[in-house]
Amino acid sequence: MEQESFPSHVVVFPFPVQSHVNVMLNLAEIFSLSGFQVTFLIPDHIRKGPRFDQISSRFTRYPGFIFKTISDGLSVNHPRTGDRVKELFDSINATTRPLFRIILKSRSLICNGRAPLTCIVADGIMSFAIDIAKDFDLPTILFRPFSATCFWTLFCVPKLIQAGELPLKGVIFVTILFCIYGLSSSNYAWDSDMEKLVENVPGMEGVLRLRDLPSFCRVEDVSNPQLQHVVSETHRATNAYGLILNTFEDLEESALAHIRANIPKLYVIGPLHGYLRPLQGSKSLSEEDRKCIEWLDDQPLRSVVFVSFGNMTVLNIHQLMEFWHGLLNSGKPFLWVISGNLTTGKCHFPADGSVKKGKVVDWAPQEEILSHPATGGFLTHCGWNSTLESVCEGVPMICWPFYADQQVNSRLVEEVWRVGVDMKDICDRRMVEKMVRELMEVRREEFVKSAQEMARLARKSVSEGGASSVSLDSLVRDIKVMSHGKST
To answer: Is 45 among the residues known to form the active site?
Structure first.
């Protein structure tokens, strides 16, 4: 076999928030295991964080892996939550974009004997990488760290606008009531319109309702800058060398077929964390409370509701307390992650004995908790990383989406995969209690059976000969061809 003149050298460029960095670190590790040199552009606020040294030590086993710092232009203490993402988009455009060009132009990534750059693998919400990399004769592969169904839905937004399904009417008024006062939108006539099925997302007929469209679609004016930005970024994937999605064929077959018709170079290689199970070491970018595992060890089989809304969700105090009382009233033990960014005020939980039914931590080892035999359900924001991790462990879900793709994902959980319930647009203690009981008691066996089947399919996809494993092999081969200068 002909020897490579030098190894493939891939630059991995994530969107600078924790969930995107986490999943692209998994991708970078898979590239390292494939023998590539990898330069990971780490956001400076994460490099300055308390966990970076431990994360960095995870990659010392790969001599071809290095971190290179890049700034998003925001202060270290900026929350980078979903309600303030416009600030992040604007700052990336003003600061990160020109810095990326400077880094490539400086040739600093290929000093000290490192191989020439082969390609850029950039987060799909930062498609400016395509144009900049092209100036240096580098191909760009985009990576979208959310569901294929959400990607396809955003791709279809121009059709939705043309057909009059967007914009939504009355959305601003009701969203304000919901977000500020914690009211359920089901109290308003507007809500009945949100139940209408969407007709112009091919493959999703009879599944998606207006309320299930990505949160960016909840606007009264289709010229809304955030909506226009995410739709434009989605369509720009057609200009990249290819597109990587962290999902698997059996999970989103319909959406993937439609995407593939528009983007032939589609690499469906998920769930990414499934390839890395044998490797030890924490992957969290936040400090974890390990004592919660000891607490779980003392709980009965499948009895605990794990509660986590990720690091971009923001609750007001009213919403927080509705969840709290709903969980207490359900009578089920719960483990709840309440990070510093989760709420806009201070938490004042009741100081009575009822708190013994649950445990609250600042952050937790989520994958380990979901795989723990005491975990019986997951109350989640339905971010894609969390959704995939729950699917892979066969844990049924209660979904309360907040932002971006989460509205789409929660609908898939309930209506398509039948592995949980969708509680979107409702924040009421009685409904929380009802949903917990439905998941853990009333329909428990039904959900567990469906969830275990999806977990089996997830494991199959990343095993040798599985569809995702085969697609990953294709991606690795294509990158190696690029390093030979033979890409087509």
So the answer is: no
Domains and CATH numbers, the chain: 9-150+229-280+462-483 (3.40.50.2000), 163-224 (no CATH), 291-459 (3.40.50.2000)
User: CA 311 to CA 49: how far, in whole Å?
Assistant: 15
**Cα–Cα distance, 420 to 411 (Å, whole number):** 9
Q: Which listed residue (20, 258, 372, 381) is catalytic?
A: 20
Q: Is the pLDDT of residue 484 over 90?
A: no
CA 434 to chain centre: 27
| Strand pairing category for 358-361 and 397-399 | unpaired
The predicted-structure confidence for 108-165, as pLDDT tens digits, reads as follows 888 888 999 999 999 999 999 999 999 999 999 999 999 999 999 999 999 999 999 9
Whole-angstrom distance, CA of residue 401 vs CA of residue 407: 5
Total residues found in the chain within this entry: 488
- Give every CB contact of residue 368 below 8 A, 6+ residues apart in sequence: 293
Residues 6+ apart with CB under 8 A from 6: 115, 116, 483
For 118, 182, 250, 258, the CA distances from 345, given in Å and listed in that order, are 47, 14, 42, 44
90 is catalytic: no
**pLDDT tens per residue, range 206-258:** 999 999 999 999 988 999 998 999 999 999 999 999 999 999 999 999 999 99
State the Cα–Cα distance between residues 144 and 60, nearest whole angstrom: 26
| Rounded Cα distance, 251 and 3, in Å | 38
Catalytic residue among 72, 123, 422, 428: 123
Q: Supply the mean pLDDT for the chain.
A: 88
Token pair for 400: 């309360």
The rounded distance, in Å, linking the Cα atoms of 55 and 372 is 23
Cα 276 to Cα 150: distance, rounded to the nearest angstrom: 25
pTM metric for this prediction: 0.91
Q: Which of 92, 68, 81 is nearest to 19 (CA)?
A: 81
